Structures are given as C-alpha cells and as structure tokens.
C-alpha cells in the first residue's frame, strides 16, 4: 500500500502486511514494524507512536519532507505533522483492508483465501481497535469477524444483519469458552427453535471489547440503520424473542412453578443471586446467566487471573419448568432430595458453560444419590 501526499503535508508511506503474525505481536515490548525517515534519511525504527498499537502487525516506512532531521523521540510524540500522517495512514490502511474484504465477498477463491488468511491472523488486534480507536470505530466494525451458529467460517455484522428475519430487532451474541461448547449451550435453545442466528464470541478479547460496542450502524448513502447488540448470557435477553402468546403462557407457568422456584431458591441459598423460570430452555433442565449489572463470569475469571481483586459473581439460575428433573420437585418434600436436585441443576449448568465447580466431590456425591 503506497501513498504519496503533496500539498500542506508532503510525505510518502509504503506499508505491507505479512502473511503470518509477528512472533512478538502480543508481547508488551513488541518491536515496531514501521521505520521513520525524514527526507530519505533514516531516523528511527523503534517508535511505537508511528501507528496505533492495534496495527502493530503492519510493516513499512514513513518518509516525511516536513519534519526536522534532528527530531527527537519526545518531539515526535507531540508533533502535529506526525499526528496528521498517522491519522491519514490509519484511514488508508483500514480502507485497503475493507477493499480486500469486499473483493473476497464478491470475488474469486483466491480473494477469499487471502482474506481468510488475513482475518485468521489479525482479527484479534483489529478488535483491540474497537476499544482503542473511537475515531475509526465504524470502519473497524465493518472489518472484525466472528463465528456464528448459522454459517461456517467467519461472518461480519453486515452479513449477519443481511440474514436477519423481518421481526428480529437486535444482534445476538454469546460469549464464553470454546466455540463448540458455546454452540451447544442451553442458552441458545430458544434462539435455535425460532431460527435466530447468534454470533459466537469465543475470543478472550471479546469479553473486554464487546461490552463497549453497544450497536452496529449500517450506512447506505444518507440512510442509516441501527441494531442494538445483546448478549444472550445476560438475564432478560430472552424477553426480546418471546412473542405475545409466549408471554401470556409464561405468566401462567410462573404462577404454577412458584412453589418449585421457592424450594430451589431456599435450597441454594446464597450460591445464586436469583432463581427464575426460563423462557429460553426447551430441552435442558437449567442454565445460568449473569445479572445485567454484574461482570460476566469470564471477565471475573480474567480479572482474578491478572491478580485484580474480584468478588465472586453469583449466577442467576434459570430452570425449565417442563423438564422432569424440575417438575419432580412439585411433590417432593424430602429436604435432602430437594437440596440434591437443586445443587445438581446449578452445577451442571455451570459445567455446560465451562465454569469450574468449587466442590466437584460434592457434585458427584449428590448425583450418585439421585441415581441410586
């Protein structure tokens, strides 16, 4: 990618993207891949201010005609000329990436292979840009890719919205561990039943970036469409996909299930934040979700792994009132059996979402008692 600018600013840039990510791309002390020249005289190849950190995989040179030859690193960090060159270079790079993506969408197998290679290597740093570079957020939203419950390989927000059904108002995502685990999550049962696609957020960085990305905006000329991005891991997400008939039926079911819910809530005590009748489960007996105001379970685990003080996030347990394991509690009065069933409902929901059990031996003991 070559740029020659003349006028108010005079400079040349020549950038290229390697096929493979640099080995130190995720090291704090990564080496910049861009060299700075002034009037074709080499100045530095160790300045991380030449491009934003999320584009640290880009290699190339910047040659300015306007900077002084004796420019110091301290001056470079505050230099308006270099700031303008940097801004223009970022826009040029993102524009070229979009051109490659567009060519892959409408072009040959070779174009698709090139884009797949690029996004496989550099999707994660581009997602970092959503967190770092608010000025270019819209351009980056068109570039980042995700896995999906509806298609194989990578998909974009634009492709997702193009496949949406007429009644769908939001973009749905699910985050957590591995993609295959997420695709089998009980949280998706109602979405699958209604044919609603969900984006798979299986990269750790998604937990950091996506909470700040609240909507996707598609622009076509003067027209603009917006879709709110919602996580199915959150309590209340199932309200959006429930029709009026579903809501009426749920109220009756909630009234019938209240004695069972109260039994489970009493048995689990402070292990959960709340127990609710689920609107999203069709086959599984239970699932866990996080309160809207709490960090996700994965974010809490990441913070603890980094040594940050973090209190345990208590899950909200949702149960399927039609499942035999739950419905048997309607007539059950034995406190031990109620406690065993309630604990197993919670623990298996935690396991399915990739969470570790605090007491695996207790889970096995309770499960054996129920099977005995």
Question: What's this, in brief?
Answer:
The protein is α/β, with parallel strands linked by helices and 372 residues long. Helices cover 41% and strands 17% of the residues. It has helices at 73-77, 80-106, 109-132, 137-143, 157-163, 179-183, 189-193, 204-209, 244-268, 297-305, 324-327, 335-352, 360-371; strands spanning 2-5, 11-16, 34-38, 41-44, 59-64, 147-148, 170-175, 198-201, 215-220, 223-231, 274-277, 286-289, 316-319.
Would you write up a description of this structure?
- It is a single chain.
- This protein has 372 residues and is an alpha/beta fold.
- It is built from 13 helices and 13 strands.
- The longest helix has 27 residues, at 80-106.
- The model has no long low-confidence stretch (mean pLDDT 89).
């Amino acid at each position: 990618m070559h740029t020659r600018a003349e006028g108010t600013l005079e400079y040349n840039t020549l950038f290229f993207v390697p096929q493979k990510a640099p080995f130190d791309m995720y090291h704090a002390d990564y080496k910049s891949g861009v060299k700075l020249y002034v009037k074709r005289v080499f100045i530095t190849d160790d300045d991380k201010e030449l491009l934003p950190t999320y584009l640290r995989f880009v290699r190339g040179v910047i040659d300015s005609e306007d900077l002084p030859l004796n420019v110091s690193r301290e001056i470079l960090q505050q230099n308006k000329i270099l700031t303008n060159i940097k801004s223009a270079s970022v826009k040029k790079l993102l524009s070229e990436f979009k051109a490659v993506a567009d060519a892959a969408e409408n072009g040959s197998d070779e174009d698709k292979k090139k884009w797949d290679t690029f996004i496989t290597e550099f999707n994660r740093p581009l997602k970092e840009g959503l967190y770092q570079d608010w000025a270019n957020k819209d351009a980056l939203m068109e570039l980042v890719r995700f896995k999906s419950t509806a298609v194989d390989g990578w998909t974009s927000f634009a492709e997702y919205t193009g496949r949406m059904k007429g009644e769908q108002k939001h973009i749905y995502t699910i985050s957590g561990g591995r993609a295959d685990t997420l695709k089998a999550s009980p949280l998706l049962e109602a979405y699958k039943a209604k044919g609603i696609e969900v984006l798979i957020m299986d990269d750790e960085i998604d937990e950091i970036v996506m909470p700040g990305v609240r909507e996707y905006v598609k622009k076509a000329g003067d027209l603009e469409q917006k879709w709110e991005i919602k996580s199915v891991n959150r309590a209340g997400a199932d309200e959006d996909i429930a029709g009026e008939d579903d809501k009426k039926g749920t109220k009756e079911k909630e009234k019938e299930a209240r004695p069972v819910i109260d039994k489970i809530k009493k048995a689990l005590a402070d292990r959960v934040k709340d127990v609710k009748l689920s609107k999203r489960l069709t086959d599984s007996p239970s699932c866990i979700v996080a309160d809207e105001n709490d960090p996700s379970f994965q974010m809490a685990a990441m913070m603890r792994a980094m040594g940050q003080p973090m209190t345990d996030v208590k899950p909200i347990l949702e149960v399927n009132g039609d499942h035999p394991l739950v419905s048997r509690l309607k007539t059950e009065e034995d406190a031990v059996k109620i406690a065993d069933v309630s604990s197993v409902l919670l623990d298996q929901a935690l396991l399915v979402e990739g969470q570790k059990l605090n007491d695996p031996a207790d889970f096995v003991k309770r499960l054996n008692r129920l099977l005995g």
